[in-house]
Specification:
The structure is a homodimer. Chain A has about 350 residues and is an alpha/beta fold. Chain A folds into three domains: about 45 residues, 434 Repressor (Amino-terminal Domain); about 140 residues, Rossmann fold, CATH 3.40.50; about 140 residues, Rossmann fold, CATH 3.40.50. The first copy, chain A, has 13 helices and 14 strands. The longest helix of chain A is centred in the last third of the chain and has 18 residues. The first copy, chain A, is elongated. The termini of chain A are far apart. Chains A and B meet through helix 4, helix 5, strand 2, helix 6 and strand 9 of A and helix 4, helix 5, strand 2, helix 6 and strand 9 of B. Chain A binds a DNA duplex (16 and 16 nucleotides) through helix 2 and helix 4.
Chain lengths: ~350, ~350
Amino acid sequence: MATTLSSIAEKLSISRGTVSRALRDDSQISISTRNRIKSLAKEMNYKPNLVARGLSLGKTQTIGFLAGSPSLEITSTMEAKLDELANNAGYEVYVAHTKGNLDITVKRAHKLIGRGVDGLIVKGAFPEATVKEIQTKLKFSVPTVLFSGTLFGKSAYSSHRLVCQDVSIGIRKAINHLYRLGHSQIYMFSMCWPGWEKDMRFIEFYKSIESHGFGKGQDRLYSTDESYANKGTRHIIDVDLAFLQTKKFLKSHPECTAIICIQSEFALFLTSALARMGIRVPQDISIVGFDDVSTMAYSQPPLSTIAQPVEEMVNSAFELLMEGIERDIDEPKQIAIPSKFIIRQSAGEVRSEKKISITEK
Amino acid sequence: MATTLSSIAEKLSISRGTVSRALRDDSQISISTRNRIKSLAKEMNYKPNLVARGLSLGKTQTIGFLAGSPSLEITSTMEAKLDELANNAGYEVYVAHTKGNLDITVKRAHKLIGRGVDGLIVKGAFPEATVKEIQTKLKFSVPTVLFSGTLFGKSAYSSHRLVCQDVSIGIRKAINHLYRLGHSQIYMFSMCWPGWEKDMRFIEFYKSIESHGFGKGQDRLYSTDESYANKGTRHIIDVDLAFLQTKKFLKSHPECTAIICIQSEFALFLTSALARMGIRVPQDISIVGFDDVSTMAYSQPPLSTIAQPVEEMVNSAFELLMEGIERDIDEPKQIAIPSKFIIRQSAGEVRSEKKISITEK
DNA sequence: TTGTAAGCGTTATCAG
DNA sequence: CTGATAACGCTTACAA
């Protein structure tokens, strides 16, 4: 059906080998026959069969992307970026969704290896897995780079090639920013999940709070798990409950002047919830979010946020992978890319009143 | 390196054909040798080389997903769903991002066909393309189903297999809902883009407004293109400008009691912008959005919205594709899935005062 | 029930 | 500079 090397070779009464070489511009083939072949190929609308080429070469020019949490704007952004890089380099990308589950990840990875992928990018932090599991299960027969937004202890990855976010920078910048604006009563809001204690974002937050002499870091964490659930593919906030809890928090902590929200959705929620309570952002309370979901920029006021440098991370991951695929480099290597602090309008000068009060119901 | 059919055949001193059949549970092979082979295969950790199988069979059990607009939560949700369906059916999926551009789409599609994909799902509406272009360029040598959230005139697709959203239902439901709540001064907000006039959402909105006897539909559209731009991979709202324009609108249309926002980001923006102006939602003005971005549920109040039935659409698209791939069905067929209207709290009873007034700056 | 051999569309080695 | 030929790993008539 489709035109093949043989079919064009036959038409020209020459060998398939010659056609193959000509079409790849092998300088061994004389210019004249090269041209003859190429023009006929074009005429016959020849397209190389890449699966045959893959079989022959043992390389398919494909990579697999194991996507962790689905339904996230950030996942899609990463994929688009990866696709762009890969495509420019002549690769095609398979994507498999793993829900952040280690076993699913491993299973899909092996399937993709069976498909002949030349390399793998594995996104996910696997907070529920043990260090040993990570070290053993995440080793594959093709070059692999791990990719994680937030890290749960670096040691687990010491034998891998990995790109991660260095959250400490962003958090420190955010807290310094708030400090300069006069804040000291800074709290972190979080809706927790299994394994959260190991998340570097908390640890760095504690550190930063303590280094400013604001007291014990842990005392500045206000968290709840009741209002946050992973339903199907989405994280769900129980808004009514969250509204109540926020009000309760403010009553028991009227001294609070600034809140850092570890979930972007919650930051969004909080901004409008405060407006409803008659509390102005940033005049009465300053808010800082995490990640850079586009809607954060369209919140009123637009939200300042500690953001993952998604593009840079994808760039590095791809580069690491290409080193592995095209230059056989596979020595362990961890690249941590500093998170950014994006200043918008939700963090402002500290208010003058000591205590906050809720006007509206 | 990896164990192959031959390597296990050799160990057992039998032919590769037998091994091949045994491993696929061909009943021709005696149970006993089948077991012998299978257990050795397991022991040797045999994984079939799917690219070789693909070459042999002329089918790869892969499909290509051409993703339109990137960086959208909805894109990621669709992908995850498609991946789930495909994987259960034994398929793997390539994804290629096209930025909604027809030529990129065509180019990537052909690349994927060269990779041997068995079928293609093409997402995108291509508002800038002519009917002729759509009819000719979107035809490929493998089963293809088109997938579009909003349609720009159905006629262009009459020779394709397609799944789309029937927006009319959702819009009618939304407007009926508002009507029952006493609203008649209903407006639609939109930030426009090339080709927007053809978008069914406007057309259905006009229809619905007029069928209620509210007057001319077009008079109820408030649109601007200055504040909406497609910067890189993201749609950008100029929030300050949008804030001003919203204020201007309310001053010139103080009778407005309900607003339907065609962009979800804008609905989000509008809710918090109104809060800032001292206008309560829904007590003073009701808001309805489009699509169902998760953050819309976490807005305060949570936003009522006309939502794309993403899962159903993906289900149908996959089914259509499988018909094409596995049963050679390729007669044109269009499936329109009714959009849903999700009632949350941003649309409420119409206010009693005739005119709205802005209290805060 | 099993073995043999051709074929899928390439690339690569080795002669000529 | 070009042509044979083997090889990649698997499936599948056809034979035995």
